[in-house]
Amino acid sequence: MAHSPVTPTTPPLRRGLTPPGETPPAEGSISEAHVERADGGIWEHPVFWAGLVLFGSLVVAGYFLARIFGFA
Known about the structure:
The chain has one helix at 46-68. The chain is mainly α. It has one helix and no strands. The protein has a domain at 46-72.
């Protein structure tokens, strides 16, 4: 079993301190359960916006290619 050495700068555990590896008790917590908000629909889906930007860039690139090759 591994034993962590106690050095002169490391004080031994006192009563009331939480040993390493254990979660201390939640003292003074004021958090409460909250209702999860509804999905924001299309406004919260980045795939839609990324697709829209990609489509727009392809339209602009197509316009410049058409100008270069004399179609517009």
